[in-house]
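Issue 218. Parser rejects a valid record. Input:
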Amino acid sequence: MGFSGRIARFFLTSQLTPLIALIAALLGLFAILVTPREEEPQINVTMANVFIPFPGASAKDVEALVATPAEQVLSQIAGIEHIYSVSKPGMAVLTVQYLVGQDRTQALVRLYDAIQANRDWVSPELGVGEPIIKPLGIDDVPIITVTLWTRDETRGAYELEQAAHAAEIELKRIAGTREVKTVGGPGRAVRVMMDPDRMAAFGVTAKDIRDALQVSNAAQPSGTLISNNQEILVQTGTFLTGAEDVRQLVVGVAQGRPVYMNDVARVVAGPDQPAQYVWHGPGAGGEHKADNGRVYPAVTLAISKKPGENAVDVAEKVITRVNALHNSVFPEGIETSVTRNYGATADDKAKKLIQKLIFATASVVLLVLFAIGKREALIVGAAVLLTLAATLFASWAWGFTLNRVSLFALIFSIGILVDDAIVVVENIHRRMSLDHDGLEAIIPRAVDEVGGPTILATFTVIAALLPMAFVSGLMGPYMSPIPINASIGMLISLAIAFIVTPWLALKLIRQAAHDAHAGDDRLTALFRARLTPFLRGSEGKRARRMLWLGIGIAILVSVALPVFKLVILKMLPFDNKSEFQIIVDMPVGTPLEKTTQVLSEMGAAVAQIPEVTDYQAYSGTAAPINFNGLVRQYYLRSGPEVGDLQVNLVDKHHRDRKSHDIAQGIRPVVEAIAKTHGADVKVVEVPPGPPVMSPIVAEIYGPDYDAQSRVAKQVRSVFEQSEGIVAIDDTVEDDAQRFVLRVLQNKAAVAGVAQKDIVAAMAMGLSGENVTPIHGSGAKYEIPVRVTLPPERQTEIAELLKLTVRGSNGNLVPLSELVEVMPSAREKTIYHKDLLPVVFVVGDTGGKLDSPLYGLFEMRGELKDRPLRQGGTLSEYFIRQPSDPYTGFSLKWDGEWQVTYETFRDMGLAYAVGLMLIYILVVAQFKSYVTPLVIMAPIPLTIIGVMPGHALLGAQFTATSMIGMIALAGIIVRNSILLVDFINEQVRDGMDFQEAVIQAGATRAKPIVLTGAAAMMGAFFILDDPIFSGLAVSLIFGIFVSTLLTLVVIPVLYYAANFRKLSSPKQEFSHDR
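Output the parser choked on:
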């Protein structure tokens, strides 16, 4: 007796067997209770921004003296995938993106070490500031956002912001919260708004005001003195505690009397000059739809969680605490709306998928009930539940959370996890109808009979799936729960089938109830009728040729479906989410009020959509980021020309249209508004998988950056002329005006005024300067004392030039006498990627195909060898950057194409490795080089089901479809092994070869059809998911077609390969080498 039979015999009557089953069930219950729940897998993406200030420097100087040397230093760090840099006047921003899976702590230590060890890349005299490093990762994405808004016209953004700041402290006390921050609000400040006319009259300069504030806000303990037998602490000086203290400061002396701050400036405490606006708009589908069309001032609290914490628990605690803060921290009249809750969506998704898992298991049990019997169904059901329980525990131990991918992996696995139990139970059932020994003798023999092929088949499925765990990039860890959970589950199901299933069979099955001869005879007759025409002499040879020809034609037709776009290829389809964003970019130089106007018009249009519950508008700042915003670096979006609309939708269970359809519907409306105002607008949906900069990205390289920008405009024109390309944008900034105030050196020298004093006075008047803080306010954030000109004096250059500076003789000199105003163009930002200057052109696709790949290749035809106005043609790259970009202009395609290429490349390699492993395993088992080829022959047959299935249902062929095809290789080979192994056994027992072929089909048809039907039934429960429907389609149609064909093709093909040697029933069976 073989290994599997001995295992079954040992545990058949062992007291350990029920304990093993109980432990497996308890471990599964433990895993369900403790495994954190999240909507999506937490991909370990380590990024960091390095901000290096270079005050006063031009963009080109920043690029040459700061960004380029910094890139060269950072490129030495191990584990970095890309380095991006943005050089703008006065600042370099470098982004370091590590390879997926790099340990976050070690990666950041390497980054800090590299920067500190190379601080000498610039000389200290250059004036480059201290680098500021801001690490970022998936845990920086808020899982819940709460928007504070009010209908009370006496309150505004300032009061909401103060309430939010008070709430931050309360929310941070919740266990598991990571960062709590407020988005929106003007901030709080004591503004000292200078009056140039009165300052000139009193002989006071801006520098005098700044110096007075700095020297007057000082205090410290001076020591202690001993008096009357007591030690008394002595403190010298007092801090500024409010606007009144600032007003009473002496800033100078005029005609023998002190000049107070109140004499030369207006001091105002309260909200700062707004640099951003946030408002809340109820939508037509929300609970406040009666307010539809109105907008209310708002701020948003964004709360992220610590690594490893359960998103569901943290979100629930946050909502409970927010509700408790009403009428205490939140005064009456302030309302709160939960505008993001990834904890609730994760919980809803987990509950729904666990429910599907139960239904899938129940459907498989019912299948066995009708096919074999109720007691066998109980055995299979128990085996599946124990397998799932142990797999859930193994998944938790591996570090996976309960998310949509890990749970879909289990649902997908139901069909293959049940295979071992079905094969064992069915064979026990069959042997009981043939043998008349006791169950304790029959069960080990029955297990041993299918044990070898079952072990081999299990490992072939694992060999097909496991290589997918090594897919690189963002897609690898995103999909990794599927191959890992399924492979672990297969091993556990094999152990359960050999240990627990026989024990349950002994306890539950009654031997007398089984008599399957009539059914077996009918199957034998059926297969004899179907197979004999292919096995009979020269007629059989002709029939086989026709069969191969028919299969070949079917494969060619199936392969042609994607070529003729009857099946659309796409990385992943859009999911049905409850949110999307509208990103607005106004021309450089647009004031905040204009951006606010454009957002208001778009918000009014969005609010009329029946499925919109509400929206939040963010003018001058970015909305709280999601994972897409993290990768695209939306958190860096700030300034008067940028704006976001965060649009929230009715729950998907309560609306008919999908979020993608809603987003596509609003796109032409907001594009029309944007076109009116000269803005660029993008409707950004939550990507179904790993995000990219944009679905279509064209990177333009060349020897000269200005020429690169002109080439990029030519490429953009091709984007705009291509049908179906939308959301077009580029990184070439529009021309914008600036004034350069050139200091008249001769006049400044005569007056005894230093140029740096003129520069400081202008900066203080226009941008303002935070000179010193207010003490003793009890506020969470610093309240600065800002010296500036009033807003009404900041609109004309002539008003600014009324400011005065003090000359060497003490006289005041107006700036208008010391500078010359020179109109010029604003400097433009310079971008680098991986040490090369680059200009980006981006776009998205809409319309019928809705796949960036088709838009890309359509534009490629227009751009290929396109003559450029600069001379020459545009070289094209798909996989890598140009090795020598300085010999001409080149375009490198990126975006979703790059992820698609890398994913399908790696999956293709995983498929090939899986096939090689399957071949090696089968060679080892059958000791033949030809037999494994016969066994693996049905693998190409899967495409006959997969592609027509996608075409029939109108489904796109996606990465999950490819996963289904890879899994099919292992599943189908399992069926072939059962057939070939049975034929070999029967021939060894002396049966005629042709009869053995017929009997193999008849005898193994039931377990093969049952396991195939089980896998299909499991797949049916994921068919309605937008992302994983491709996996379901591949499994359902692939298994259906290939199973039916396998029952004919494998016996016929094996007969054709061996009939000359094994045609005599007396000839001893020998393996073919």
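Fixed in the parser; the record now loads. The longest strand covers residues 296-305.
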